[in-house]
Amino acid sequence: MERLVVVGGGAAGMSAASVAKRREPSLDVVVLEAGDHISFSACGIPYWIGGTVEGSSERLVVRSAKEARERGLEVRMRTRAVDVDPDAHEITVETEEGTEMLEYGTLCLAPGVEAVNPFDPLDGVHTIRHLDDGIRLRDALAADPPEHACVVGGGFVGVEMAEAFVEQGWSTTLVHSRETLLNDIVAPSLGETVNERVRAAGVDLVLGQRAEELEGRDQVEAVRTGEERVEADLVLLAIGARPRNDLAKQAGCELGPAGAVTVDDGMRTGVPDVFACGDCVAFEHRITGEPTFLPLALHANRSGRIAGENVVGGDERFPGVLGTAATKFEDLEVAATGLDVEQARETGFEPATETITSVTRAGYFPGSSEVDVRLVVDQGSQRVLGAQLVGGPGTAKRVDTVAAAIWMGATASDLEAMDLAYAPPFGPTWDPVAIAGRLSGRAARR
Amino acid sequence: MERLVVVGGGAAGMSAASVAKRREPSLDVVVLEAGDHISFSACGIPYWIGGTVEGSSERLVVRSAKEARERGLEVRMRTRAVDVDPDAHEITVETEEGTEMLEYGTLCLAPGVEAVNPFDPLDGVHTIRHLDDGIRLRDALAADPPEHACVVGGGFVGVEMAEAFVEQGWSTTLVHSRETLLNDIVAPSLGETVNERVRAAGVDLVLGQRAEELEGRDQVEAVRTGEERVEADLVLLAIGARPRNDLAKQAGCELGPAGAVTVDDGMRTGVPDVFACGDCVAFEHRITGEPTFLPLALHANRSGRIAGENVVGGDERFPGVLGTAATKFEDLEVAATGLDVEQARETGFEPATETITSVTRAGYFPGSSEVDVRLVVDQGSQRVLGAQLVGGPGTAKRVDTVAAAIWMGATASDLEAMDLAYAPPFGPTWDPVAIAGRLSGRAARR
Predict the structure, then answer these.
(1) What is the number of H-type helices and E-type strands within chain A?
(2) What is the percent of chain B where pLDDT is above 70?
(3) How close B316 comes to chain A (CA, Å)?
């Protein structure tokens, strides 16, 4: 049966569907989307809620269902895939009108992730993993600005939403289980800089405490940690995401870390004619070789494309991930790639690390600001294993230089030796990344 | 005789002197500087003249003679080395007081470059290769702002100085021998974008014409090309720099391209006990393997450091250059690395090229602007050979990602596969560099 059914109309699902259709125009391609939007930028939601991105939610939509249909895809909105029979090649879908069976030749699972929310439902409690959630939150904020907003979670989304809230002038508390923000990507020494900036912007930080309970009858009134009660009439939960794996489980797919779907480098699940891609799958880490749950836009996109090629007989391979990531709080930029010391040690390396402080532009050039670069280097091979950067404008994308170097197996000396661009508006003569290469190499040879 | 004599107190000379003294504190180190300043940022001069960098010329001085003396270096200002006898290990120096002989154990030549100026001296004609020149120009401009300024040369310095002049509101013409600006680093298709921006800022462009004559008796009155007469009471010549190689010639050193001093990768000239480093030497190109005259700050710095190590018995090696460079005009950023098509062909590659247009931030994020990336890829090996970028803020330092990739021998597919950072304030999901990798790889496989 020449039909491809794609479950999920996000970046991965739409990439897979579009690529397959483009390569094989005769293929019947059906996309099932449970929500109201396809192909939106989840990463843009905090900036849209904070008002940095102006206009309607359509601004965040990369491609509308209408456009997708014009390219020959059948897109069914508000349609949930609830059951699958991989032997019969049948999938059960549910809409407002009822239940229907759909045959497929190939199935591609790209349902993405859902925000973690361990609490009972209460009014005023939000997550923003999906655009529909974002719209709900923005409508709620417009109708009734909070007296006290509380963000739970100090990762990307939490930090970005705290910025969005204080930019609106709202009293905002951020509760985070660890002592420093963004601890998934930067070590505590660099995270301290983030803490300081977030605090200076007026966000009340409650650190090292886990949110254990949400108080309120219908409407949320407070967040309780073990030690504190944070009054809040609006709570934004940003404590992580987990793969939507129900259908994959039913199909008999193997699951990996955090319940992410296990796939080979061609996005095949191992179940005949069932592919999976996007945020719901585990990607191979380029350094550790381990499957890794890393729901980030680039990988979702890339894996969707690869799935689309391979569904129609291609042989594209997913090249792996380094965990490169970036964000900002006001004009403080934070980025990381590869492994930190602990992960490196667990992988069997003997990591050395060094943090250097340099500047983003020539010291005398207006707008020059400090940047810290922490590099992790293997003492045996001198290979660069990871980098973390925190600093002013011009910091974040410098991580790409290190990511490219790590990708190609560079040593600390290579990083020092590279011919990187210099001009006063863009950096000091020796780029911070090259300085970090020199000093971390020295530390690794000690 | 345990004395190191360094000729030239610029970045290279001072690096060599400082490193040698630090490694070997008993070494007697004498630096001879012909001008009034050591260790200044030549690249900062246009920004200081334009007023972007405020304050006195001291802002551009990295280290003063006083500081250098405190570290144990003997620094002699306004002291010109005029003759050398390599057999006797003697150098003749000239000061206002007269002539003196100086014995050396090791000689390190780092006199740098001088601005090319084929014209007879006239008042109102300036170059800015040295801080002393820059101070002279700034003083002249402050005393008597020009009616019509004319910049001759459309390379880095010319474009940067044209910006400096129009920022002050002065009527400015730029005369350039080629049809597009910055043609040393970007192809005409990208140079057109630079032309447009420079013209839009109010600079009158006279392109494809060489300045052949300067008119005037004592004071300059006009620049004459073959076809036009550009009235000007101030002329800034920015038509290149040439190595100061008199002493090297006298010492019997071999000279390479453009008269740059030939050195091995340890900065040895081949004449016993004579090293050379900095802008005056030719560096090995990492891709072509050819000696290359490339007077840029990073290489000057690096080669000085290496000379300093090796003077006292070290074995540091210069790792080569890619020709990475960057500049900006207002907020248009321009950068390049590696080879363009013609150079690649001359080197024996079969280059393919592709130019893509993308954005510097997510399309919906404020401040997102266009960026063009031109990539050159070898059809045989698929190796990336070069890149050129022109675009809005956030463009220039993206060249480092490609420079790192080229440095490590990456193919176009590697560039596409790399895990580069994505967040809406910093780029689209697929970085422009990765998109260029994909499409140029495709072009190279055709």
Answers:
(1) 12, 25
(2) 100
(3) 11
